[in-house]
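Lab notebook, page 48
Experiment: co-folding of the full assembly
Goal: obtain a model of how the components sit together before planning crosslinking
Operator: M.T.
Materials (sequences as entered):
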Amino acid sequence: DAGVIQSPRHEVTEMGQEVTLRCKPISGHNSLFWYRQTMMRGLELLIYFNNNVPIDDSGMPEDRFSAKMPNASFSTLKIQPSEPRDSAVYFCASSDLAGGRGAQYFGPGTRLLVL
Amino acid sequence: SQQGEEDPQALSIQEGENATMNCSYKTSINNLQWYRQNSGRGLVHLILIRSNEREKHSGRLRVTLDTSKKSSSLLITASRAADTASYFCATDGETSGSRLTFGEGTQLTVNP
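Observation: model returned without errors.
Model output:
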């Protein structure tokens, strides 16, 4: 299996622009997670889907962030408009068990820099 | 607040030595997991220990869990330079809505 696939790997954009991050989970996994990692705040869960349905979005910072999972093999995280404080590494992870009940498999991350 | 807190924040040892990292948490858990993150990479799952388990092994890794003290330890035996990475504990709290909460990690450096 190819593992969790994320794109792009790096993104540099200017403040105010829209940013779309993409994720393809491991085939057969029914849980998908979006995390953000920064030096200041560590690893934070943004949103968690189970069977394509958002279960917990309490970590989404504000209305500028939105996430979708139109089918079992694809998810997007969108930031509009982007701000410098959104600069971070964004990870997608998937699991074959719901929530934190099982191992989570992380993608390589998208390193986002908002100027 | 962070559910899992690792100790120490940084650890530097020589190749061949054992490395022990600790994790403390605040609330009751369903399970506790350990992950490794190499610089610039995603996290890699190492081991999961359930709340009714006390010890688990995987290769050179040994994890213990003491629910009475709300703590866990990760022991890496016969360390190698390739073990250099950040190590995170993550807890699936009974009241956390089935979300994993990660600690801030221990940065392990194994010197050749």
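Interpretation: Chain A has a mean pLDDT of 94.
Next step: discuss with group before ordering constructs.
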